[in-house]
Design goal:
Elements (H helix, E strand, L loop, with lengths): L4 E4 L5 H6 L1 E4 L5 E4 L10 H10 L6 E4 L6 H10 L10 E4 L1 H10 L5 E4 L6 H11 L8 E7 L3 H5 L1 H5 L7 E8 L9 H9 L10 E8 L12 H10 L5 E3 L4 E7 L7 E8 L14 H8 L1
Helix pairs in contact: 2-3, 3-4, 4-5, 8-9
Length: 289
Amino acid sequence: MKLARLEVPLINDPHVEYECVLYEDSDGEEGVWTGDEETWDGDLGSEIRKLLQAQPLLEKFKLSDYGISYKTEESIQANLLASDVPNLRSFQAGPGLAMAFLRVAPRLESLNLMINNWNTNLLSNMETSSAAIKLSIRHFTIRIWYSDKWLWDNLASVLSLFPNTEELSITINSLTSQKKVNPANYFFTKISDSIYVLPSLRNLNVEFETIYPETPRIYEVEVQSIINSKTACPLLETVVDPERRLWTFRPDRQVLGCFEARLVGPLMEKCSPRMKDLPNPEEATNQGD
């Protein structure tokens, strides 16, 4: 069977068990244990490549990098070839794995970067890896820790990796037990101040994850921030705010060259889980007896 879409939600990488273990000795000194003679000597990166090679028609690949070791990541970065993913158009993984695919997937147009702690070195490596394909990415999705100060301060630089992005989705992970965290509006303002580097942007979707959804105004976004998004990106057509409300724009009737944000309404809720199938006639008959 040849697949067009493939999702690998979880990988149990044997290398993780032996890769790095922190410990503290009897004197209170910290150390690092990196495995012993029992270390698995296989190559999971090679196995992932074989999986891809068996699916030459694959267009969409979602790979969770949770639990993937540095050894596996380095193997994929060093050995992945364009012939392994000749038709890949959409890819989801962390930045480390994404860099390998960006270098060899010329047809890639959709990228979903899972959560990661960003820094100057990672940004530089991403710039190098995406240089040949940066103009081809049209759909860019990224998850961000609420506490990743470096990334929030340098969000424009990260977004500018893919300047032709037309659809941008940002998920703010604020899943923390700390109650004194900034509400969605704080982060949305940072986003609206950073998207000026995406002149082709047409659709903006911002989600906010929190374990305290009952907090007053936690999801609320100021209308002016939504208007600022349109000012930064003149081609912007729609915004979905953290309250899951859809906004569009129309010319301001009083101020020439400006826009008004128009609330269309809330998005529809996700479909409820599928109900169990009805029992077959025999079972229904027996239940009625």
